[in-house]
Each structure stands twice: as structure tokens, then as C-alpha cells.
Write a structure and sequence with these properties.
This is Extracellular solute-binding protein. The chain is α/β, with parallel strands linked by helices and 437 residues long. It has helices at residues 11-24, 47-62, 78-89, 118-123, 133-138, 161-166, 182-196, 210-223, 239-252, 264-272, 286-291, 329-344, 359-362, 365-368, 373-376, 397-410, 416-436, and strands at 37-43, 67-73, 96-100, 113-114, 140-141, 144-145, 148-149, 151-160, 202-203, 278-282, 296-300, 312-315, 317-322, 355-356, 383-384.
Length: 437
């Protein structure tokens, strides 16, 4: 199963495709008898993401007759990251890998990755100007670039345009009215309820899902202009912003317009079935909504705090160079070329709901024509990645700890104040363990 709950392309199938590519290159020659090099590429993309990556890699392969890109797909989450770290530490690293930007701080400082050479990248038309500021800034660790973003994937709101039209919510441009407060949000939910006749107008799945809780929280918290500092001996945070963000989440799931106990799958099903007019979701869910031929609109999660700060939780799949003590320079050069070709041909990545990171692709008429992608594509310019640390990021225990504590506040088993204090204590334990290493 992939990160985004989509499994149309299996790990076995990708390995079969990769194996066939290697077999076809078995004689070691390309067109006109030129020798070929095999570039090993590890990633964790399956389902629709895997299909699109295979499409893009196949195109890059066709443009590189002197090389073959062999994809190796590993299980998402801790299994993938553990194997990648072991391979880099044990001298068996692949030529290329995929790492979430949010996990970079746990890999680059420890010598598990090699930095990208900016001069080499420039020869292939890749550099700071071809990425958004958040993606480029977050790729730098100790003054060196360790990651090249393939995409940005944000937490947004999708809505059913048919239901919104029947509820009288749409303006002349087919957009929802401005949402500037929780009262505004609840009014939108109440109007959807009137149309559907169902218990809830809004859908947000969070029960037992630390990642979902974290995504909405980090969006709200960042809209306050606040951040976490995990670099010292103690956890530093804005207690007022933290408390208000969690209170807002609790107000959302009040049992009136959104369920007090919806799981991820429950919320998704309610939206797909027309039982809810709006769902808070990651952009990676776009393909399944479109597969159901839903009349679909989208918008960034509104800032309801009056701060005027645009912010959205997000992450990026990034290309990295797993550490090699004595890299084969010919293969490494081909790895640079391969990444540049994948980035330049990443338009199909928009079909997965993601916003391609390579700006020349984003600025094409073809990408601008994608709907509703362009209704949230601006989130890439103000994306808020997870606070950098060796213990944070996608699939981390940090998110699990957050979910276990904050969920109790949302469902009324503890106060928000106590939940914040409990989480702070847990983070301090994580910090102390990281320091001891």
C-alpha cells in the first residue's frame, strides 16, 4: 500500500518492469553499440504515484540511450527509510533515492547522503531559480543542497461544486465565499447539510491518524506565524498559538457540521458519496475523486485567525544521492542527467494531485489548464514543512505521539491545556534521546 492509500501499481510489478529493463540492457550496449550504465533508483511510490513515476522514468530512459534507470520500490514508511539508511551506511547505496523533504534532517547531517553539486546541476538547467523558495530553502543543510524536490503536496480543502451550487454558496467564478472565521466555516457546513440532509456538511478524518491530525494542526499553527524549535535542550513553541490551533480543531469536529469521530476512510467515503460537501484532505486524493467523476473544486485551508498569513502543511518527494564512498563518476553524472530529465518531464505528476516542483513545468499552459490543481497550486509558494529534526517528518514517531495526545483533546477526554503540556513533555523526551545519540 502506498502512502496515499492507492495500490494500483504493485511493488512486484515495478520490480518486474525494472527487471525487464535490465534484461533488455543485458548485452551492455545501447544504440550504435555504445555501452550502457544501469542507474539504480530506490523509491517508495506505488499505486497511482508509482504508475506516473514509471511513465516519467520510461520517458527519461528513452532520452538516455547510454543508461538504464532501474527502479526498486520498497515499502513506504519506516521499512523504506531504514533500508535506505543501512544501504548508505553499509556501502551498498543506490545511485538515486527518494526522501521526503521532512525526513532530510535525519539523513543529511549524519553522512547518509551526498550533497548535490550546483555546478553540475546548472549544466542540466536545474538550480535555485527553478524551484520555489520553500522547496529550495528546505533542501539546504549546513550550507549544502541535499535534496531536489519533485513536487509539493499540501493539505487543502476539496468541495463538491454541484452541492455548493444547490446550496447557493458559489460566486460568479464558481468559488466558495471567503472563509475568514470558524463561524464562516460552520455556516458553509450548515448549508451543505441543508442540501444533503445528512448529519455532517464537512468531512475531516482524524481518528487514530496522527498524520491527519498533524497536517491540519501545522496548517493552523503556521497561519499564526508560529513554529517549533527542536534544536535546543528543551522544546520551544508558542503556547498561545498551539492552544488556539487545537481549540479551533476541536470546534470544527463539534458533532454539528463535522463528526467528532471520523476516520480517514469514513470521511473520504462521505465526500465521495455526496454525503458531505467539503473534505479536508491531502492533494494526493485528487485522482480518486476524479475517477468517480466528481464535480470538484478546491481551495487552500482558509486562515481563520485574522493574521493574514498564508500557510499550509506540506511535504515534498525529493531526489537524493545516497552516500557512496567512491562513486563511479560516469554513473553519478548519469544520475544528474536522469534527475534533470525526470524533473523536466514531470507534468504527469500533476495528474496525481501534486504540484510539480520544477517551475518551468508549473508555468506551462498544460499545467495551468489542470483543474482544480490551479486552485491550490499557490500553496507551493508558502508551504510549511515539518520542523526539522532527526525524529520528525513523514511516517515518524513524532506524528504518532502528536496524534495520541491531541486526539484526546478533540474528543473531550482531556483539556487542550493538558494535551499541549503532555505533548511538550513527550517532545522533550525525544529531544533528550536525540542528544544522547
Amino acid at each position: 500500500m502506498s502512502e496515499w492509500r492507492n495500490s494500483r501499481l504493485s511493488r512486484r510489478r515495478v520490480l518486474q518492469v525494472a527487471g525487464l529493463s535490465a534484461l533488455l540492457a543485458g548485452c551492455g550496449t545501447g544504440p550504435a553499440g555504445r555501452s550502457t550504465q544501469e542507474i539504480s533508483f530506490w523509491h517508495l511510490l506505488t499505486g497511482g504515484d508509482g504508475e506516473r513515476m514509471n511513465q516519467i522514468v520510461t520517458k527519461a530512459d528513452a532520452d538516455m540511450p547510454q543508461a538504464r534507470i532501474k527502479q526498486v520500490v520498497l515499502a513506504w514508511g519506516p521499512p523504506y527509510y531504514t533500508k535506505l539508511a543501512m544501504a548508505a551506511a553499509g556501502g551498498r547505496a543506490p545511485d538515486l533515492g527518494i526522501v521526503h523533504m521532512s525526513r532530510l534532517a535525519g539523513y543529511a547531517p549524519g553522512g547518509l547522503l551526498d550533497p548535490w553539486d550546483l555546478g553540475r546541476l546548472a549544466r542540466y538547467g536545474v538550480g535555485e531559480s527553478t524551484f520555489t523558495a520553500p522547496a529550495w530553502k528546505s533542501s539546504i543543510v549546513n550550507g549544502k543542497v541535499y535534496a531536489l524536490a519533485l513536487d509539493s503536496h499540501a493539505f487543502v480543502a476539496f468541495f463538491n461544486t454541484d452541492l455548493a451550487g444547490k446550496a447557493g454558496l458559489l460566486d460568479a467564478a464558481g468559488k466558495l465565499p471567503p472563509i475568514k472565521s470558524m463561524d464562516d466555516m460552520k455556516r458553509v457546513g450548515a448549508e451543505f447539510k441543508k442540501v444533503t440532509g445528512k448529519p455532517y456538511g464537512l468531512a475531516y478524518g482524524f481518528l487514530g491518524d496522527g498524520a491527519q491530525l498533524w497536517r491540519l494542526f501545522w496548517t493552523f499553527y503556521s497561519q499564526h506565524g508560529a513554529t517549533f524549535d527542536l534544536s535546543g535542550e528543551k522544546f520551544a513553541y508558542d503556547a498561545e498559538a498551539f492552544g488556539e490551533s487545537v481549540e479551533t480543531m476541536r470546534s470544527l469536529v463539534d458533532g454539528e457540521v463535522a463528526s467528532t469521530s471520523a476516520e480517514y476512510a469514513t470521511a473520504t467515503s462521505a465526500f465521495l458519496g455526496g454525503d458531505a460537501g467539503l473534505v479536508f484532505s491531502g492533494v494526493w486524493e485528487l485522482p480518486q475523486y476524479q475517477d468517480k467523476k466528481m464535480p470538484l473544486g478546491a481551495l487552500p485551508v482558509p486562515n481563520m485567525f485574522g493574521t493574514g498569513i498564508d500557510a499550509a502543511w506540506g511535504d515534498s518527494h525529493t531526489f537524493v544521492l545516497p552516500h557512496q564512498s567512491n562513486p563511479d563518476e560516469e554513473r553519478r553524472e548519469l544520475a544528474y542527467e536522469a534527475v534533470s530529465k525526470i524533473l523536466k518531464n514531470s507534468l504527469p505528476w500533476g495528474g496525481a494531485g501534486h504540484t510539480p516542483a520544477y517551475q518551468p513545468v508549473v508555468n506551462t499552459p498544460e499545467f495551468k489548464a489542470l483543474r482544480p490543481n490551479n486552485d491550490y497550486a499557490a500553496t507551493a509558494t508558502y508551504l510549511r514543512y515539518d520542523p526539522p529534526s532527526s525524529f520528525t517528518g513523514s511516517g515518524s514517531n513524532f506524528m504518532t505521539q502528536f496524534g495520541g495526545v491531541i486526539q484526546n483533546a478533540l474528543i473531550g477526554q482531556t483539556s487542550v491545556k493538558d494535551a499541549v503540556a503532555d505533548f511538550a513533555d513527550r517532545v522533550n523526551v525525544l529531544i533528550s534521546k536525540a542528544v544522547q545519540r
